[in-house]
Amino acid sequence: MLTPTENARLTCVGPETPAGAFMRCYWQPAVLSEELPENDGPPVRVRLLGEDLIAFRDAEGDVLLVTEPAWNAPRKAYFTWEGGGLVWAYLGPADALPAPPDYGFVRVTANRRNVVKIFQDNNWLQSLEGAIDSVHSGFLHNDDMHEKSQLRNAPARVEFERTVHGLAGAAIHALGDGRNYVRAFAYIMPAHSLRVRTLGRTGVPEDIPTISGQIWVPIDDTTSWLYNYMYAMRPERPLTDAFVRARNASYGRGPDDFESGYRLKRNRGNDYLIDRGLQRRRSFSGIKGMNTQDIALQECMGPVLDRSKEHLAHSDRVIIALRKTMFDAIDTVERGEHPGGTEPLDYADVRLADVIVDERIDWKDALKETACTA
Question: Does the global pTM surpass 0.90?
Answer without folding.
Answer: yes
